[in-house]
Amino acid sequence: MEKKHLHEISFLRAIACLSIVLLHSIVWGMEYVGFLLNLPDFSERFLDSVTIFLYYGTPTFIFITAFILGYSYKEKRSISKGFLSKRLKFILIPYIFMGFMYASPYALLSFEQFALKSFLNIFIGDFHAYFVLIIFQFLFIVCSFQKMVRSCIPKKSHFVFVFNKRCIFIPF
């Protein structure tokens, strides 16, 4: 069965992308050009407020990933075997490469500084692509949870659902 294209998700992706571009433009402008303009305090506070509002772009991309994953696999009993390997190949390897690239200026200081910054970039997400680690954690959780749900007996799955639903609605 052919899945229909979700135009709403494309629209949401475009809005999130524009918000991130605008966010980085404002931050860059305030940091590198703002002192030339000698902006009044009100303008600086206003632009700071706008940047805080625009931070929703990154969580929006994480939401889109989760939504598309759920939408794509809602009818299937399991995630395909090449699911994680494909994402490792096309997302994680470039992420690691960019982690090294962002650490490369530290190589001018010392190898130890380069190694430390590379480690922080790749394993902690200490550069602009930190959200890739969040998405991978989510993908691993989804794969693990799907395996766990498939292995459960339906009565036990129902019990877990009822138990969790009751815990959520317990009045204090």
UniProtKB/TrEMBL annotation:
Keywords, alphabetical: Cell membrane, Membrane, Transmembrane, Transmembrane helix
Statement: the UniProt record of this protein carries the keyword Cytoplasm: no
Membrane topology of this protein: Multi-pass membrane protein
Pfam families per UniProt: Acyl_transf_3
GO CC, one annotated term: plasma membrane
GO BP, sorted A to Z: enterobacterial common antigen biosynthetic process
Primary location: membrane
Stretches that traverse the bilayer: 12-30, 50-69, 90-109, 129-149
GO-annotated molecular function: O-acetyltransferase activity
InterPro entries, per the entry: Acyl_transf_3_dom
Family: Belongs to the acyltransferase 3 family.
Name of the protein: Acyltransferase 3 domain-containing protein
Organism the protein comes from: Halalkalibacter wakoensis JCM 9140
